[in-house]
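User: tokens in, sequence out, please.
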């Protein structure tokens, strides 16, 4: 048995939550391996919308085990709020939600440090979700972090206090005016930790080793997207984890030769939330329409997402880096009604036409070159089979498959679980 991966190929919000929920019926275990509550994964079924931040998107399937791997950073306060929201579903979390002891915790002061760092950057700010992600991963790699397993130690509060005090000194260095009530934040944290401690802690590497030996099927759920990867994304406008396929190995404790299929998920167009370069970004009516029809607002922060045409140069880059074996195209329904659809198929970079992603894709360095496609007027949201897809959409799909060299196996035509077409 191998672990299949599902990963975002763009700047996040591709629809990972929806598809993990759809695929969970084929898996016994669903696992998050990186990121934290900066993620917002939306699931819609039976007229109910759910947004998950830390909990894997398999949680609504009562037979599935959901694992939060060692590569994830957990804010107990946010996790507690997520659990609260799910209360009415009578999910037995003790039996279905397992947490790696090696996962790092986001402390209240990590969030403050995130806010201070962004404030100091001024115009150059990353546009972080301000969930404390960067500072927590900095403490992890700096070997100062606080892990879930530490909560099993007698003196964990001393360790917490020591790290908090260190953070307060760092905050003073930032010289930005943040108003906060530390006692309140700490109390909220301690209360949430008590809830966290009611869940099952595991050694995830051992869990996956045994699960694979016992022939269990496992799906790993990525967060963010490949262009937000700390190494291969649009640095420094990225997140602080490895969002690409390799991150699943280190974030779960699974060897590279145990990775099976890699499902790459992308929107039929592109969105980005936060700062950073975005060559195909639109500032016109077309971009506005995508935002409006696609309801493009961040699931975590509510910020409007920037919208633009599909960037096939960037998509191919992501496909290669992840070794994607199958693709899933989301939100095809949002493009219905556009007379012409465009996709970027090369860049002009330093006066030359290139077909790969260069070191910088800033506006001043690259100009996208577009290929035009015929649009389709049809409403796709009620379609149920691939044979019903309009011809113009099939041509768009065929071009993308040829360009990136990987087949598109799912076309999503609406946010609901049911609006999913298999090919
Ligand atoms: P994730 O972070 O990758 O899980 O994606 P988000 O949940 O942040 O953003 C995807 C948004 O698009 C959510 O609001 C989904 O409900 C919605 N969505 C997903 N698939 C489709 C689709 O095929 N069509 C439309 N119109 N909306 C979709
Ligand atoms: P999901 O899993 C979209 C973006 C932020 C910011 C940058 C760094 O829902 O796809 P961070 O909070 O990590 O310090 O922010 O990354 N970002 C996301 N954008 N979807 C996400 O997650 C994101 N998580 C972080 O907007 O630009
Ligand atoms: Mg999201």
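Assistant: Sequence out:
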């Amino acid at each position: 048995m191998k672990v299949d991966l599902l990963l975002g190929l763009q700047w996040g919000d591709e629809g990972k939550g929806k598809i993990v929920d759809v695929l969970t019926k084929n898996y016994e275990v669903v696992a998050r391996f990186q990121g934290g509550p900066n993620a917002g994964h939306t699931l819609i079924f039976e007229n109910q919308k759910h947004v998950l931040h830390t909990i894997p998107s398999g949680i609504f399937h009562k037979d599935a085990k959901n694992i939060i791997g060692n590569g994830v950073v957990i804010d107990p306060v946010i996790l507690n709020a997520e659990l609260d929201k799910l209360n009415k579903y009578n999910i037995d979390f003790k039996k279905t939600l397992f947490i790696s002891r090696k996962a790092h915790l986001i402390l209240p002061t990590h969030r403050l440090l995130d806010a201070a760092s962004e404030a100091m950057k001024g115009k150059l700010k990353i546009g972080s979700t301000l969930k404390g992600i960067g500072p927590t991963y900095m403490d992890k790699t700096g070997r100062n972090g606080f892990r879930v397993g530490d909560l099993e130690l007698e003196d964990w509060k001393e360790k917490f206090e020591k790290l908090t005090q260190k953070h307060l000194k760092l905050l003073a260095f930032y010289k930005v005016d943040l108003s906060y009530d530390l006692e309140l934040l700490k109390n909220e944290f301690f209360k949430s930790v008590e809830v966290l401690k009611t869940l099952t802690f595991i050694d995830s590497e051992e869990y996956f080793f045994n699960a694979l030996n016992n022939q269990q099927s496992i799906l790993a759920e990525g967060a963010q997207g490949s262009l937000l990867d700390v190494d291969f994304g649009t640095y420094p406008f990225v997140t602080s984890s490895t969002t690409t396929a390799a991150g699943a190995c280190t974030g779960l404790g699974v060897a590279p030769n145990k990775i099976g299929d890699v499902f790459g998920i992308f929107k039929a167009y592109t969105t980005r939330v936060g700062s950073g370069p975005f060559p195909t970004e639109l500032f016109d009516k077309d971009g506005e329409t995508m935002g409006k029809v696609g309801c493009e607002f961040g699931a975590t922060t509510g910020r409007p997402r920037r919208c633009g045409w599909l960037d096939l140069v960037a998509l191919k880059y992501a496909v290669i880096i992840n070794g994607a074996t199958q693709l899933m195209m989301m939100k095809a329904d949002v493009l219905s009604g556009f007379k012409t659809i465009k996709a970027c198929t090369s860049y002009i970079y330093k006066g030359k036409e290139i077909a790969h992603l260069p070191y910088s894709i800033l506006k001043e360095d690259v100009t996208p070159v577009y290929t035009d496609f015929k649009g389709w007027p049809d409403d796709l949201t009620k379609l149920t089979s691939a044979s019903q897809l309009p011809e113009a959409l099939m041509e768009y799909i065929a071009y993308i498959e040829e360009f990136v060299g990987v087949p598109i196996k799912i076309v999503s035509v609406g946010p609901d679980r049911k609006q999913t077409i298999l090919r």
